[in-house]
Amino acid sequence: MLDTPGVLWPKFQSEEVALNLAFTGTIKEDILQKTEIAYQLVKFLIEKEREKLCKRYGIAEKYIEDTLKQEQPENFNIYEIMLEIGRKRGCIISGGNIDEEKTARIILDEFKNGKLGKITLENVQ
After folding, report:
1. DSSP class per residue in 11-45
2. Residue 83 falls within a domain, yes or no?
3. DSSP 1
4. What pLDDT is recorded for position 33?
5. Is residue 69 within 8 Å of 76, Cβ to Cβ?
């Protein structure tokens, strides 16, 4: 029998707890996909801290509202907003495509470093 601490991702009681830990970098990024974590963070910010998201990345709230109203699944709409952040941050690669990894890294790093402002992930109940 071997004890391998830190090799496996511990089981959390809820996905929300796991995501909050991933947003703050508590869970090693090499265990999870940065793009998925950044996507979930953008979704959270749109729902809870839209003004801070818009201000930091120079995105108009109307753009977010219009994008969310598009007739396609929500995950495509949020992903499109994430790609817009990439455009605004210059994460453009050949062919005019957006570098998703670089965009995700920027979003996560700026969140962890407090560049989006003071944000509470969990509310006391």
Report:
1. P-S-HHHHHHHHHTT-S-TTTS-HHHHHHHHHHHH
2. yes
3. -
4. 83
5. no
Q: How far is Cα 86 from Cα 35, in angstroms, rounded to an integer?
A: 12
Q: Record the tokens describing residue 45, joined without a space.
A: 């910010």
* Residue found under tokens 């990024």: 29
Q: Contact 88/21 with Cβ under 8 angstroms?
A: no
- pLDDT value for 121: 81
**Per-residue pLDDT, 83:** 96
Q: Using CA atoms, how far apart are residues 125 and 117, in angstroms rounded to an integer?
A: 23
**Domains: count for the chain:** 1
Domain assignment present for 121: no
Are the C-beta atoms of residues 46 and 61 closer than 8 Å to each other?
no
| Domain-located, residue 34 | yes
Buried residues in 39-70 as b, exposed as e (16+ CB within 10 A): bbbbbbbbeebeebbbebbebeeeebeebeee
Parent domain of 46 = 15-112
- Do 91 and 105 form a contact (C-beta atoms < 8 A)? no
Band of pLDDT at residue 2, cut at 50, 70 and 90: very low
